[in-house]
Amino acid sequence: MSRALNHIKNVVRFISPFHSNAVITHKSLVRDYKLQKDKLSQGTQGQFSELLAPLAEKPLHAIPEQDGFLIAQMQNMDLLGKAITYCRTAWPKDYIQKTVSKPSKNNTLLPVHIDVRDPRNQVIKDLVLSEEILAPIANYFGEIPILYGAYVWYCPNQPAENMVGSQLFHCDREDYKQMKVFIPIDEITANCGPTTCVSAQATQKLFAHRKKQGLTLSLKNRFSDEEVHTHASAKEHAIIGKAGTLGFVDTTNCLHYGSRPAGDGKYHMVLHYLTPFSSKLKSQLTPEKLSGNLEEIVLSYKDTSQYLKEPVT
């Protein structure tokens, strides 16, 4: 009876004049990805395969499909150390706190977007293009990763009466697969409100349960800890670590939360990659534009966010 009632509620919700028809689900993201990929010419598909082949040969890290996440250690610490040092001087925490405000995040997240095309930010560009980061994502996607954004995030994690938005379990919806790479600038501990996820396999269990119950599968939903622990998994994976840690998370397919009230703030880089066929990219990346060498394709999307900040120094 409850399943039938839930189904009726969903039908009423969908025919309501106040309801948006743009309901995004895991299934709709796969459909959109396939529709966009089908527009790619045979010649460009062949070029993609040639560019992917070297990345597939020797990834230093492997992201298991059933997990959808991986916590690893960077081998090229010289490159990563330079990027971390640069971020500390280019976008210090106190500067971010004074100059960045994002009302939709209710001060749970203060983001700086980095223009990797700016010559001053070359070391960030080098990190974005490093094989150690690109190869595992390319193998997980089966596609050339496109950089959607490079960021420095400072999360104050201030006390609050109620948790909001991304502090609750959720899935992102930019692509059918995506990858955010979380890189500590300051050490991230359990007391920093870390990004925390359950596996992709466990996430599928929750959505299968909701489908069986006739509940909405919209990726705009937020989920309580109790629902996730009951119907997905009680095992959470916190992305914590010192300098050198790489936290790869497919935030579409892994339920996750972050920036919950905590004793310390969280200061880290995030590199955000999508497949070339995300609907978020199609306004800029027509199939005809997906050509060139690997670097040109990876950097073919231009971030135009209002949160782009020039380096302080």
Shape: globular
Number of strands: 9
The helix fraction, in percent, is 25-40%
Mean pLDDT: 90
| SSE order | HHHEHHEHHEEEHHEEEEH
Strand arrangement within the widest β-sheet reads 1-7-4-9-3-2
State the major sheet.
6 strands, antiparallel
Query: Which parts are unreliable, with pLDDT below 50 for 5 consecutive residues or more?
Result: 5-21
What is the alpha-carbon Rg in Å? 20 Å
Q: Tell me the strand percentage band.
A: 5-15%
CA distance, first residue to last residue: 63 Å
Structural class: alpha+beta
List the total number of helices: 10
Could you describe the 3D structure shown?
It is a single chain. With 313 residues, this protein is an alpha+beta fold. It has helices at residues 2-15, 26-37, 42-57, 77-90, 93-99, 122-128, 131-141, 200-212, 225-231, 294-298, and strands at 69-73, 110-113, 146-155, 178-184, 196-197, 237-238, 245-249, 256-257, 266-274. Mean pLDDT is 90; it is low at 5-21.
Task: List the main descriptive attributes of the protein structure presented here.
six-stranded antiparallel beta sheet, 10 helices, three-stranded antiparallel beta sheet, alpha+beta, 313 residues
